[in-house]
Design brief:
elongated; 4 helices
């Protein structure tokens, strides 16, 4: 059950870190030039959290604590976050901003998939 707790805590930390990204970007756009470094640092942390979360979900899947959708969703999120990091460092704002919005939505969509995980991944026994 420690794995399930770690998974749930990590998914919440991931969501908070994702929410922080547009806040930091907004602070930068409001004239706080130093916030761009915080935005970039949080992006790297966010991507690392996603990788860790993917590994936790894969282990959780093997133990039937996580449903079959969790790992592919998290892998997709990780790949898109790498693309987002690249777009940001290359200053491709035409891609970086809409991809950030999509990642925010995808992060919110992962919450019920992962927070609702717990032996629900196992087939239910037929009632007699």
């Amino acid at each position: 059950m420690m794995l399930l707790l770690a998974l749930r805590v990590t998914v919440i930390v991931h969501a908070v870190s994702m929410f922080l990204q547009p806040v930091l970007a907004g602070m930068f756009l409001s004239g706080r030039d130093d916030m761009i470094d915080s935005h970039a640092t949080n992006a790297a942390i966010l991507t690392s959290i996603t990788l860790f979360l993917t590994v936790l979900a894969a282990v959780g899947r093997r133990r039937r604590l996580v449903g079959p959708r969790a790992v592919p969703i998290l892998l997709g999120l990780f790949v898109l976050e790498i693309a987002q990091l690249t777009a940001g460092t290359q200053h491709l704002l035409w891609l970086h901003i809409p991809l950030g919005v999509a990642l925010f939505g995808a992060t919110i969509a992962t919450l019920p998939v992962l927070l609702g995980s717990q032996r629900a991944a196992e087939p239910k026994e037929a009632e007699a």
